[in-house]
Amino acid sequence: MNFLNALLATAPKAMDIVVSILLMLAGTGVFLIGINMMGSNLETLAGSKIRTIFDKISGNRFTGLLTGAGVTAVIQSSGATTVMVVGFVNAGLMTLVQATPIIMGANIGTTITAQIVQLESLGITAWFAVLTAVGAFMQMLSKKDTVQKIGSLLAGLGMIFVGLNVMKESMSIFQEIPAIQNILVNTTNPAILILVALALTALVQSSSATTGIMITLAASVNIPIKSIMFATLGVNIGSCVTSIIASFGTNTNAKRASLIHLLFNSIGAIVFFPIIYWAPLDKWFELMFPDLIATQSAMFHTFFNVTMTILLIPFVKTLVWIATKMIPDKKSKDEVEENYLQERFKYIDKRILSTPAIAINQTKHEILLMSEIAYKNFKLSLSCVKNGRVEKQEKFSNREKHLNFLNREISKFLVELSAKEISFKDELMLASFYHVVSDLERVGDYSENIMEYAEELQKLKTTFSDAALKQIDEMTDAIHKVFENAIKAFEYQDMEILEVVYKYEDMVDDFKMQLDRDHIKRLNSNQCSANTGAVYLSLVSNLERISDHMQNIAKSITDYTAKPKKVYAIIK
Description:
Distance between the termini: 99 Å
Structural class: mainly alpha
Number of helices: 24
Radius of gyration: 31 Å
Order of helices and strands: HHHHHHHHHHHHHHHHHHHHHHHH
Mean pLDDT: 79
Strand content: under 5%
């Protein structure tokens, strides 16, 4: 009976604990959704700027540092930034020396989350939380895409504070339970603190989530700042797990990039461990921010990452050298002269789907590569048909296979990318990309037809007359201008080049009619055979269709380019 009474007496307390844990999980969920909403909408609004920044990345380490910090502050995820970097290094778009400062900057940028979290302790939660309602009303009352994105951004920021408040209130019950209070406050073993924080960050793959929980818990249960400092070291090391996972299946340099991230954060932990343990660092922060444990925690997080970046930025090349020694080069047996001819992407990487603004840019790079391959096959087939002799057929076939692969797989990637949170302009851009990919694949098919005409001429042991060849040269000169200007218009979204494309395309149409008429005259005067004549007419028709498809590619930019701009010299 006494046991039963004791059990009944403790039942409400047990239920309170369960409810508090459920509310803490709910608050964490709202907090994470808020961070994701704010970051994704910031990224969407600043998408074109982010693309421009990464396109213009240079070897200047301080520029890279600012890039990493700025982009991470916008997208609210150092993991996403480092995954992007791993993808760029894997694609050969960025060297390790360029990537290292960006990784360092990402560590600084991610501390913005801690600074946002610590604002909750200043008693202004309600003012920020109301942004959830403001953002929601903006989304419901406006049909403008930009206003809706700003509304989602504000709603996300508000939800961060709603989630933090729910977490804080739910954790207050732990102060009433001496056993739990003692465990949380008296767990001061540095190794345990680092390992627990490392494991939690690795598990959720979000240093922002771990930092938010840690700061909120510290403010609710009065955990000593020294314990938070040790845990921060573990959070930083645990944040490397995302980039390590992202490096699986990548090339050697991409693996080195993720290793540099781990080295940087591990060296930071090694340097700061004895300082935290023996120096009165915790007392200094308590003096600077008295009775504000959340602010102390956030400020230490920023101080730690900024200090380590200042210490290690001069040793970028040293870190690269260490990573190179730890992961030596391995020459693949499958290397070929043009490595993009293997059935794999060069620029697209599914690891960067979490950052749509960058994924769109990488897709564009892959399409530009596709245009380069299509152009090479067109020029090779043209050379063969003019000479009446087939050459480099294996290389041609490999390129054609890769064009088919790119057509199929880029289209699949565009479907996945379209499902992401992107701006209306980017939606229009992706829609146009489908057609561009299809047009390039058709150019490849017509080039394949032209190569078949070369085979037929080779079997007939004949070629076109000098007069016919001269006219083909005149027509193909105009097609080259269409091709080159169309690709430049697509690459740089340059509306001025469109007029040049139209001019040369009209010339191609005129040439086709003229060539058809002149060829009929030559047939009637027995200047060429019927067999050769059939090949000639088919060739001229295919050339004109290639020009049409290239004009389509140039015109595709009108779907998402608002106004003309001049950025590239027109090819005349």
